[in-house]
Amino acid sequence: MKCNASKSSEGNLKKSLSCDDECARLERNRKLALALDIDPETHKNDHIPYSTETLRFFHDNTQWSQAQEKLFRLFAADENEKRLRFKPMPATQRSFLHSLSEDFGFDSESMDPEPHRHVAVFKTPRFVMAPMKTLAECVRIRMTAEVTTAKSALSSTKASSSSSSNNEPFNAFLLMHSRFGLTVDELRSDLAATLHSAPAGIDFDISFLPSEEIVLKARPASPGTNIPASSLENTVKALKNALATTTAQKRLAASVQLCALDASLNILRRESDGTAAGGGWSRVAARGAAPRVASQQVGVGGKSGFAVLGSKVKDAAKKRKAEEMERKKLEEEVVEDWEEEVRREEAKEGELVEGGNPLEEFETGSQANRREGQAEVAFDLEVERATDREKEQDLAG
Predict the structure, then answer these.
(1) What angle, 0 to 180 degrees and rounded to 10, lies between the N-to-C axes of helices 91-104 and 52-60?
(2) Alpha-carbon gap, residue 121 to 100, rounded angstroms
């Protein structure tokens, strides 16, 4: 509101806004909260003042329930109203009204037999004020809390599964970035000496994964034999260095890691989990299997093949442009009446001779050649015109 104050008028400085119904409701709620020692700020958090049955029915019948909630709030805000009567309705809807009355602090009662049975709501001394949160807000808070609880439960489940998978013992080798075209038979022949150094009773199965990685899984040599997982882990750990050396020397793969596989060849755990990928002996093996070659760079001032080719193309374009300009120049100098032009040139020569200028008595060979070329071009044009006229006469005849 503008003050509108001036020298002669105080304007609106001493005026105050009149308190309407909303203002009176807020003031009444403030006094009630002060009298009952209720902190309104505590009702602005995630506290839900409605029962689970009320929220469930509201979620399933939102539009109808919002209309009934509006009637309840109007009834709670009116100090003169002491009773609220609803029209006859089914038992499920009457149950919702009874539950909502309990949440508001009202008393409710069902009256009359079916099909005229209806609900009447009464204000009692235990009624203080209407809940500050609406049913829609509380349903949204409940859904958010459920989603948060589900996420936390899922994260805890993942954490527990990851911790359990991290404890899986190693039972296989993982060959990463293998050589193109490598087969199982080649791997068996190249790694036979290393794998045969394993303790008796342990064999290795070679498999190609969809990720283009190769796994060598340790297993008992005979199906009926049972070997502890710790023994398999000790075996693959003891063979890793020798296997990595052989792989690097024969350039079979870039790196070798230990891993834990299940029965379906799913990788449960890698040696690089939680550490820098490709570290330790795997990095040494990768460096030996895939030597890096420094790229050659053109020195400052040197020209690459693209620069030489570009310069040649530019020179050819300039030459074509010069030839085109010369041809246009000759065409512009050709005259229509070559006989008149010859007479004019002879007259100019006679004037020069009569003038007695010794420097202009003789013409250079290039000027004579140019004039002869112009005469020949003009003669050719005249012949073409004559030929065209004869053809037109023949067609007309």
Answers:
(1) 130
(2) 10
Cα separation, 15 vs 24, in Å, equals 19
Report residue 34 as tokens.
Answer: 């002060």
Whether the model pTM is above 0.70: no
- The strand order across the sheet containing 107-111 reads 83-85, 118-122, 107-111
Sequence length of the chain is 397
Phi, psi of 273 (to 5 degrees): -65, 125
Nearest to 129 by CA among 158, 106, 161: 106
Contact 167, 85 (CB under 8 A): no
Give CA–CA dist 262/256, Å, rounded.
19
- Classified as helix, coil or strand, 386 is helix
Summarize pLDDT for 204-249 with one digit per residue, the tens: 999 999 888 999 999 888 877 888 888 889 999 999 999 999 999 9
* Gap between the Cα atoms of 323 and 139, Å rounded: 86
Would you call 202 helix, strand, or coil by DSSP?
A: strand
Instruction: State the average pLDDT for the chain.
Output: 78
pLDDT tens profile 289-329: 444 444 444 444 444 444 444 556 677 788 888 888 877 76
Per DSSP, helices labelled H in the chain are 21-35, 52-60, 62-77, 91-104, 135-166, 184-195, 229-249, 281-289, 305-333, 338-355, 365-396
Nearest one of 81, 86, 73 to 129, comparing CA atoms: 73
